[in-house]
Amino acid sequence: MSRERKRLGSSIREQFWSSLFFMCFGVAILLFLVAIEHQEWFSLTPATGTAEAMSYASTSNDTKS
Question: pTM value?
């Protein structure tokens, strides 16, 4: 009887881990598809006005006469 019980427990454990694996795999695929759809989420932008001004100053053309 303990052999059948052990096999049943092992089967339930394997079923749990395989279900967890496939759920994580599905979530990873979903996140990947969402990420490639929204590429603008990964662009870096200045967080404050000061940082934006410094960024603008470093990229503007120096036209001093």
Answer: 0.54
